[in-house]
Request: fold
Amino acid sequence: MPTLIIYSLVFLGQLILADYLRTMGIVAFVIVVGLVLALLYIISGFLYSTYLSTKIVLNYLFRHHINRYLIIRNLKPDYKQILDGTFYYYHTLNSKNKRLFEKRVQKFMDSKTFIAAGELKEVTPQMKTLISASAVQLTFGLPGVYFKHFEDIHVHPDYYYSEGMKQFNAGEVHKSGLIMLSWRDFVEGYVHTDNGRNVGLHEMAHALRLENMIKNEEYGYFDWDDIQLFNDYTVEESNKIIAGTETIFRPYAAVHYQEFFAVLIEVFFEQPKLLLDYHPDLFAVTTRLLRQNPIDPNVRI
Reply:
């Protein structure tokens, strides 16, 4: 019966078309069809432009709220077990923040492509979970930030040779949108949680600083005045290191302002009381930039 109806409609359409062709002529019919198609093209272009403009405006005004509240998936049970078993920062959170942290880990994981590099055969669920948790640890006070620009994460089994930098590395971040990590060094950073050395946090800090400058939905989340103040402290502390004055930061922090930020983040999360005692103002501006305080991680700044 449905087939008969379809055939009947096609036949009726053919009759109507033939009738139009007889009354209008082929040339006139082609002109009318062309005008209709042109009108549809103009309308569709206008609607698409309106859609894009609306999307840009909404992203600009509400991007943090959109990214914060559009968290749909709960963390998979197997991944939650991994997080619960080995990730120290997760255990410092209360029940409410743990649930939010779990969902944000799943969302970060869903937005990235994890690629086995070097001699690594497979990026395991444990690797995906803990690397994602490292990023969310850093951005937990910044609910709209998931490193949108950085889509690919390459995981090496160990210290690897970087063709781009012509040296052996434990991790690196490329402006093109790539994060690279040595899994052995990543794990080492979370085995020792209080020595101020953490490759995962270090590389995610590079990504965080770069993401803030890349114009997309996550652009410009750092307060400009705080960044300027932070840069002043960077110069101050780097000069101390270069002059041989004793500081709590390792010499590598003075290589570049980006490296100082990454080294500071390691100390901020792993030795927060030491940083607070050493430089209260630097500690305070870092809590404002990240909107969290690792001494009391359940209080949002």
Notes: Residues 26-69 form the longest helix (44 residues). The first strand starts at residue 113 and ends at 116. DSSP finds twelve helices and six strands in the chain. Residues 189 and 198 are 4 Å apart (CA to CA).
